[in-house]
């Protein structure tokens, strides 16, 4: 039977279980589609036909033996930040354009154990530094809703691939909004879990205290399914949370449960000041209110300080995380170095793009003697104040509802000359990253035929509450079911 | 002018864990280059450090042994610099908050005096790899086997005043970490290395002079030589009107001099900041208390006990307790033979001489403690004379077999004293008959002649007669 485009994970899983098609069929259909249509968006850096078909065959065997999981045989794409044994892992950079990791990221291992099929590696901003996917060494990604626009970033390839129906699910990573912002701009559902929920092992580091992997799919339901297999304690990541949440295991087989009572949802007023398209969020709020949820205005007073704080801390960490790319052991090495200094300087100068260099320089500066206290230490203090804002808000409310981004998708090159304007894209996503909290972006409307996303932000490790409300919202709305090419 | 030198040492102790401080790779020495460097040690993308808990226990053990404050909360920082043998471009270390705070250690000088040297702090960090410059012409080889080996860096106060004190301090630290079994103490393999901060000032002056740092000294002897050279160099500079620059210097043992590596203008800004890949290191006082119970008897306590329990001299007690293998050997001998005086004499005397001559450590002694103890017992029960005992020791040394029965070897070598009265009486009577003149002189009170007769008996028995017994037999004939 033919594989229908835009089939959900759950439906694919059911079709595989019912024997309507095999994983090899499903995977071939996906690969054919990706090979044919990838040029539309440039979502994939690597298309892994052979690797995928091997995995698909094993998945079919696994199913024949009767030990399939709901994800067995499902084609997925990994953001090219996750190390994958046997496939190229570039992190969107010339520096790693020839890098093959001899190990899998824990996320990749966990999903492989569940039986998924990796059809390829998706494009991204170089080292996840960017909000438009324009900084990739492998070229920008186009937004499937309008190819003259950006898909957002840094997980732009994953978002565009899911939105365009090339895959039903992809992994992403979010440091300051890199899952949520492209999810919003491409009209998909993307979750940044609580910091520590998913292992960072084998996920190439940008800013270690902020980086968090998460799923990108076309519904809350599929997001919950993916999360269930991605999450879990990893002894190889000292910052991963050692906890057992029963709902997390149950969700894989039973789906997202119904909420047993209405919630109090907070509206952080700082996020709505001067918000363009506020009417779309208000309509979503009205929709949620039908389920009996109460809304309450709350204040997160340090919101304004979040962007500078984030760029100080993330750049500081990035500046040293990226020191290992020195041309000595792997990655790009300049031709004919004349000295050690020359080897370092040219390899790094040639291997890194402009935005990465800008952040390495900023970070090096803020960690230097004489500036450390004024920038790094101060930023750490503000980070704590921002986290306290959220703690205080969650004393009064169960969840927060907020816009994901200030604008819908923007044009290629629109912010290329003005990094500060680009950084404003992260206005509503960065505070939750600094606080380490879970946040989900779901499609909630359209402006000029471009998707708009809203965020549901929860207390630490309460992805369940977020998912319940999102699933409820998606049962009542069909924003998440709209696809590019159809009339909205 | 009279100058006083002021010295502080930073000693790097490789902790004797089986695996590295932040990875599961082995720490054993001598493997093929880069055979013991895993993805974490290589600094591959995306890999993460996980702290080895054994290293924490060892650091706590050390802190307790020097009476230091153990910080229940400490932080790992990144020390950032580029070097080919530093794969991540930063070293994970502890900067602002070390695991071990202030403590002190007592050192003994050659004249028997003691001095207390303050310890500022001790912190955990990872070792770097090795750059090998002399193997490939025009190229540098990188061996990352050592990368990630746990180090405890012990920083002293500037309490040391002479190069002799510095080496005594280094030795004392060596003794201590061996006692604690947190380091194998193998200096030749780089298990302990030190950096020396050296400055000079006119006697009586309160403030310190500008200091230089001599890097990577890996022997007790080199510490003295490097510091002596550096003190002399600094005094020469100052006396000829120059000034000392704050700089890092390298000791060249072949030329016996220190050379400038980099000066202050080029000093690096290490951009220390807390490593976001590792949580702050926290543990409970209960853990510290538990580790305190596992502390062995420390060198000072052992020395005091040797004086008290075995009646050893201060010198012997210090010498026997200075090394854990040596004191273990000593105690094993004493426990079996119950003769601490003989045990001391044999270990400090013949055994040390044989070991030195053959350049062996006591742990590799061909004569086991058990064998030496039996030898001493046979001296005590007069089976052996001091002369035959030495012959037996030599025999045991050459056999080099700890399974060899001492008594069997005594028989085999025919070393037992002849203490059969009848046999000795016969020999004495024969001698008297052969030397009537000398016997007459003895009878007439010439006591010297007693020596002659005893000597002859010893000669005829190849030293196996019991001289006391021979004496008595001769006297009975008078």
Can you walk me through this structure?
The complex is a heterodimer of chains A (488) and B (478). By secondary structure, chain A is α/β, with parallel strands linked by helices. Helices cover 39% and strands 13% of the residues of chain A. Chain A has helices at residues 9-17, 23-41, 49-64, 106-114, 156-163, 180-186, 220-230, 246-254, 278-289, 306-321, 340-351, 354-367, 373-396, 419-423, 430-435, 463-476, and strands spanning 44-47, 75-79, 117-122, 169-174, 189-192, 212-217, 264-268, 294-298, 399-403, 439-447, 450-457. In chain A, the strands form 2 sheets. An 8-stranded mixed sheet of chain A has the order 4-6-5-10-11-9-7-8. In chain A, helix 7 (220-230) crosses helix 8 (246-254) and helix 10 (306-321) crosses helix 12 (354-367). The relative contact order of chain A is 0.13. In chain B, the strands form 4 sheets. Chain B has an 8-stranded mixed sheet. A 3-stranded antiparallel sheet of chain B has the order 4-3-14, with no helix packed on it. Chain B has a two-stranded antiparallel ribbon with strand order 2-15. In chain B, helix 2 packs antiparallel against helix 3. The mean pLDDT of chain B is 92. The chains are: A alpha/beta (488), B alpha+beta (478). The A-B interface holds A 81-83, 89, 91, 96, 99, 101-103, 105, 200-205, 207-209, 235-239, 316-317, 319-320, 323-324, 326, 328-330, 340, 344, 364, 367-369, 372, 376 and B 39, 42-51, 78, 80, 82, 84, 87-90, 142, 269, 271-273, 276-279.
Structural features:
heterodimer; A: 488 residues; alpha/beta; Amidase signature (AS) enzymes; eight-stranded mixed β-sheet; three-stranded mixed β-sheet; globular; B: 478 residues; Arc Repressor Mutant, subunit A; 3 domains; three-stranded antiparallel β-sheet; 15 helices; 15 strands; 18% strand; elongated
| Largest interchain contact | A-B, 43 and 28 residues
Straight-line N-to-C gap of chain A: 29 Å
The helix content of chain B, as a percent range, equals 25-40%
Low-confidence stretches of chain B: none
Structural class of chain A: alpha/beta
The oligomeric status of these chains comes to heterodimer
Order of strands side by side in the largest beta sheet of chain B?
5-6-9-1-10-11-12-13
The CATH top-level class label of the domain at 9-262 and 440-455 and 466-481 in chain A: Alpha Beta
Q: What's the structural domain tally of chain B?
A: 3
Strand composition percent of chain A: 5-15%
CATH architecture of the domain at 9-262 and 440-455 and 466-481 in chain A, by name, is Alpha-Beta Complex
Order of helices and strands of chain A: HHEHEHEHEHEEHHEHEHHHHEHHEEH
Radius of gyration of chain A: 21 Å
